[in-house]
Amino acid sequence: MRLRHHDGTAVHLGYCTNVHPAEDVAGIVGQLDLYGVPVRERLAVPRLGLGLWLAHEAAAELARDAAAARKLRAELDARGLEVVTLNGFPYQGFHQEVVKHAVYRPDWSEQARLDYTTDLARVLAVLLPDDATRGSISTLPLGWRTGWGPAEHDQARRHLDLLGRELDGLRRRTGREIRVAFEPEPGCLIESTDHAATHLSSLDPRHFGLCLDVCHLAVAFEDPGTALDTLARSGIPVVKAQISCALHADHPDTSPVRRALAAFAEPRFLHQTRQSGNPLAGVDDLALALAYPAVLPGTAPWRTHFHIPVHADPVPPLATTRPVLQQTLAALFAGDHPGTDHLEVETYTWSVLPRPPSTSAELADGIAAELDWTRRELSALGLRSIG
Fold first, then answer.
1. In what order do the strands lie in the sheet with 273-275?
2. Which of the 8 DSSP states describes residue 144?
3. Nearest-CA neighbor of 220 among 230, 207, 208?
4. Contact assessment for residue 62 and residue 123, using Cβ atoms and an 8 Å cutoff
């Protein structure tokens, strides 16, 4: 979907396909018919944006074979689907039985991360619609915080310098501008906008910026307006924003709340949990937060990195951080100019919810409902749909 900000900027809105498990090109094309087209039809729009996730083998195949990339572009066009952004955070195996910390490897100190992101940029230059201003790729925030020292920092900087040169060359060869967006996440080297200002302000904003995942922002108990001001002062553009909500729990020291939280302590993904306060306290997974004896005292609200569908509420006494999402959208779009032009609903956790969808049709219903909620919120901020 596309919407128009009152300054004339076209804002692209889609959903991230990392919710689907396909990791080869044939599987990706199959999911277009299983989910992409039904979601578009439910929304009654002529075209729907996909934040496409390509695992590294699929990205490498498409980067090697320009004809295959053009064929994928044709498959998208034929179905009224378009791609202006790629999710380049998970490298592979995002739907295996246990993911947890594996999603952070390879990190930016490793050659494989540079190769993967370079492949994604080359593929995106082919997939971009002819009238799209630019493309974006979200990526991990350098790496997980442990095991990162001066050697890793120096190697990561060399890789980013090489990537910047590749993006510049790609722009000169193809005329397509691709920017890479680092996504702060709890537990990583960059987990807040303050960390982003420290680590990213020296990078060329023509090629690099931030992916603002609103779930992660909320888990860090960051104020959206203050966060965006920090980025602006540091010269770091918001290349894309991921529309997402975290799990929120008041009174986590009570038995009903802890029982409700336990239903979300599942084994596949990492669910970092933070407790409100100064300084912010936290642990790297919800199961650790619920362990006895308590690691977190539970005397203040908890927020957990579990992407909850943005339009829906968990069963009480739990809630979501939807108010933070609404504040973030207002901070991005209520002003004279939009804070970003790429939006991606990223609820990859549908399959591990306590009550997951039981059919592909139910999942398509849920994704469409999330996009419709987001579209209505943007319309209330003055944006208008243009297709």
1. 281-283, 273-275, 302-308, 245-249, 319-320
2. B
3. 230
4. yes
201 HSE (CA, 13 A, CB side):
12
pLDDT tens-digit profile of 232-288? 999 999 999 999 999 999 999 999 999 999 999 999 999 999 999 988 899 999 999
> Tokens representing 334?
């209520």
Here the contacts of 96-104 (C-beta below 8 Å, separation 24 or greater) are 96/268, 97/267, 97/268, 98/267, 98/268, 99/268, 99/269, 99/270, 100/268, 100/269, 100/270, 100/285, 101/144, 101/270, 103/140, 103/269, 103/270, 104/140, 104/143, 104/144, 104/188
Domains of the chain: 2-245+320-385 (3.20.20.150)
286-310 confidence digits (pLDDT tens): 999 999 767 788 889 999 999 999 9
Cα separation of 19 and 15, whole Å? 9
